[in-house]
Task: structure prediction
Amino acid sequence: MDISLRILDLFRFIFEKLGVDYLTMRAIVSTKLVLDRRRAPAMSRSNSENQSEKSYLQGYLFHLIFGIFMAAIIYIINDNMLRMAYFAGAFFFMTTMYLVSDFSFVLLDTKDKNIIMTKPVESKTVSVSKFVHIFIYMVRLNIFLAGPSMVVFILSYGLAAAFIFVLEVIFMDLLIFIMTIFIYFAVLRFFDGELLRNIINTIQILLTVLLSIGYQVAVRMIDFTSIKSMNYNFSFRDYFNPVLWFGAPFEIIFSGGKSSYLYVFSALLVVVPLISFVFYLKLSKVMEQLLLKLESGETERLKKHFIQELVGKILCRNNVQYQSFHFANAVLRSDRSLKLKIYPALSTGILLPVLMIFNMGIRGEKYQATGIEYLYLYFVIVAISSVVRLVNYSSAWKGSYVYISSGFERMEEVYRGVLKTILFRFMVPVEMLGAIIYIALFRNLFLFDIAVVFIAGIAALPLIGKVYICEYPFSRPLEESNQKESIDKMLLTILIAGTFAGLHALFRLIHNGTMIYAAVLVVFIPLFWKYMLPKSNK
Result:
C-alpha cells in the first residue's frame, strides 16, 4: 500500500465530515497514483513500460539534487530575510515549472467528468479527489526540494524552525497552485486551448534544458564570496514581491525584528493565499466550463507561414522537395513530444561554445581572446546531428504510410527537403544566435570565421544525414529514440565536425587561408548535397 494512502487514512474523519464518500475518493486517488508511476516525468520522457519506473525515480533524484543545491546556498547566507528569499524564489520557480510540466494533466483533466461521473459518484467526491491527488504530488515534491533546506534551518535555529518552515512551505504551495490555476484561467478565458498547450510545452522544454545544462550556468552566475555578507534593505515595492514575505517570521521570531513591514509581510503570506483560494472555489465552475476548450482537437491553427513559403521556394528545386520541406516543418512545429526532445539537444549548440569560454576565463577579470575561440562554434554541428537523428521519430509515426501511398520513387528528394527544413528551422537560428553572442564578446575579431563555420555546417548537414537517416522520416515510434545509438555513429559525427574544424584551423595558418577554405566549402556544398544524401533501405 502506498504510504501516502496510509497517511491519508489518518484524516478520514475530516473528509467524512465534509460530506465526501471517503472510500470512493480513496479508490480514485489510489488509481491515479498508480498511473503516475507509469508516466515518465517531463525531463526524461521515457515512454517504454520497462523504463517508466526508473524515470519516475529519476525525477525525484533531480528534485533532491536541486534541493541540496538550494540548501548549500542558504547555508552560506547570514541575513534571515535574504536566506528565506533565496529559498522562496528558487522554490517558487522550480515548483511552478514542475507543476506545469509534469502535473498539468491533472490540473486540466476533463476525463473525470466523462468516466467517473457516469457512475454513482458525487461531484464533490471527484473534486476533492483531484485536490488530494495534487496535494500528495506537491508534498512528495516538497520533501525532496525543501527537505535539505529545512535541515539547514533546523541547524541554524533549532527544531522550532521546522514547524514554521513547514507552514510557510504549505502556504507557498497553495499560492503556487492558485497562481497556476489563475494563469490557466486567463489563457482559456481570452484564448483557446491550443495556446495553453503550447505554453505548457514551452515550459516543459525550458525545464528539460534547465536540468540538462542550466546548472552549469547557475554555478558561474553566483558570487559565493559576496552573497555571504549581503543584507536586506526594505523598499515599499517589496510589499508586492511574495518571495520576500516568507523571511519575515524568521526575522521576527529568531532575530527579534520589530519593523512594521515584517508584520505586514507575515500577514500577507497568510492572507493572500487564503483569499486566493476562496476566489478559486468561486471560479471553479467557470474553470470547468473553460476546460471544455481543451477537448477540441489538437490540430494546429490554420495560419500562413510566409517566411517558410518564401524559403521553400528559394531552397527547393522541385515539387517533391517543396512538399517534403513543408511537411517536415509542419511535423516539427506541431509534434510537442518531439520538440521536447529536440530543443534541449539543440540548446547545447548555443551554450557549449559560451561555456567553453567561461571555463577558460577567470571571474572578475576581463577575458583575453586566444584566437581559437571560433572553433567552439563547431559544437553547433554536433548539436544539429542530434536533431537529424530525431527526425526518424514521431509521436504520430503511424502516418508514415503517406510515403508509400504517395508513390515517391526517389526518397533522396524527400531527404533533401527534410534536411533543408533542419537547415532553415534549426541551424540558421542557432548559428545566428551564436554569432550574436560571439560578436558581443569579441566584437569583430571572428566575423569572417563565424560565416565560415555556418558554411561548413551547410556542407556537413548531408554527411550527418547519411549517418543517421536510414528510413522514412518520422516513421519510427518516438519512445524508441530513448534507445542508445551505436557508438560508431556518434564518433563518426564527432569526426565530421572535427574534420571541418581542423581544416578551418589549418587554413587559418596561411595567408588568406580562411577565405580559401570558404571558397573550397562553397565548391563542395553542391557535390555533398547531390551525392552524399542517405539512401533509403525501404
Residues 45-50 have pLDDT under 50 and may be disordered. The radius of gyration is 27 Å. Strands lie at 393-394, 476-477. The longest helix spans residues 123-157.
